[in-house]
């Protein structure tokens, strides 16, 4: 019997921090403050402050596995928290500031958060969360702390690190020895389709996710890049990108609270950003600004924009190509850390016709290394190039094996796969295409309609900016689809024209009975269509139909 002779190095945040501090120390970390001034620091300085934070937390009595919450925008101090809290053996709980205060309080209590680090500009929200029943033992404020403790004072309490040569006469902080299976962070699902549930990432899952996310065929991040995560650090850890950046040494640019398209474009241009990441609505807004103000912003040629969270309309991908910018479509979930699928046209199809290439790029794609997916329905696994739909199942080292507290165990199959709740099919090239969420599918006259397919097709119409399709109770058909549509600025289209557009691609019964033109579609905290609210609004629409 031969025994492996390799070192067993625990995959912990310490490795990322050490690397950022020693080998990437000069890489820049830029944060735009609420007053729009730019704060510049380096990975070296961030890493040192993260170490101080860890030591200060240990001295403050935080125990291994306890939660330290953050209520913060994207900025350098939030990165310090990402690195420093787990270094102390504690668990970072990023609170989603876009949720209702009652919901944030529920989540903070459910996670039993002990300490909180909060931005001064978010103190009014903090007060509401406390009024809604949340309580934190200690609260540290980044910025003007007022009556609270200040984050800078917390850092100042950090004693020197205990090392082999330390003098015994000063008070020292002993950081715990981390195991790679220790909890590092917790995120709650944003509850688009159900009650929020906690997903607890380990050091190991985070390190492996970061390594693979950086690969050229995944998100492709390198030290030479400048990354701007528009996606908030309180939503699935900004897709894990702050960890990827710290690991690769890519310069990182944090946008702070100003996320309107002109403010983002100013920052993309000024900091020469090469990679940005955000949900489709962000890029819709950016496209409109670029179209309306040609030549105003000098963006880096070939700027890559990672898009996910909801489906990227094919038209958006085409429009950005026209502007010399590249959208990269990816799929993921809170439960999958999140990278689960990335859509890149493989080399053997690079010469395919334009229509085929755009169709592929608008699909969700194929899994990166170490992740496996399959599509399964009541008949079993759906083979590639089969036109039937099934539920997308996923497994891998950064996929949750359960929710905190063991809620809804039926989301996992008996043979160890996570059931995503997404409906998908696989094309002849092995590309996964999401067609809907199980909860959003529409049952009409005993047949299923995929709402997402209809809305994606509607968004391919030149006059349509956004479209959301929902099923509404109908006395005869059980449910019928309604589409809410936002037109592009200055564009015109009639309901009949849009219905004909849908009819040109899908069976007649898929055509929405009603098309409602609206100024905006309600959205969730993560920028997705809020279909629960839409269904409520139009609940009685067909009540009096024969
Ligand atoms: P929530 O369930 O509250 O939306 P997440 O933020 O974890 O929680 O979102 C995961 C879901 O977002 C996926 O299950 C899927 O429905 C949707 N999603 C994510 N990326 C994409 C994408 N590229 N295309 C379509 N849907 C996506």
What labels describe this entry?
single chain; 546 residues; alpha/beta; Rossmann fold; GMP Synthetase, Chain A, domain 3; 8-stranded mixed sheet; 7-stranded mixed sheet; 16 helices; 25 strands; globular; binds adenosine-5'-diphosphate
Query: What is the rounded distance between the termini?
Result: 77 Å
CATH class of the domain at 13-161 and 172-259: Alpha Beta
Class based on secondary structure composition and strand pairing: alpha/beta
- In CATH terms, what is the fold-level topology of the domain at 13-161 and 172-259? Rossmann fold
Beta-strand residue fraction: 15-25%
What value does the average pLDDT take? 95
Rg, alpha carbons = 24 Å
What is the global morphology? globular
Low-pLDDT sequence parts: none
State the assembly state of the protein chains.
Answer: single chain
What name goes with the CATH superfamily of the domain at 13-161 and 172-259? Answer: ANL, N-terminal domain
Percent of residues in helices = 25-40%
**Ligand roster:** adenosine-5'-diphosphate
Largest sheet, described in full?
8 strands, mixed
Q: Please tell me the CATH architecture of the domain at 13-161 and 172-259 by its name.
A: 3-Layer(aba) Sandwich
Strand order of the largest sheet: 2-1-11-10-12-13-14-15
Q: What is the number of strand segments?
A: 25
Provide a count of the helices.
16
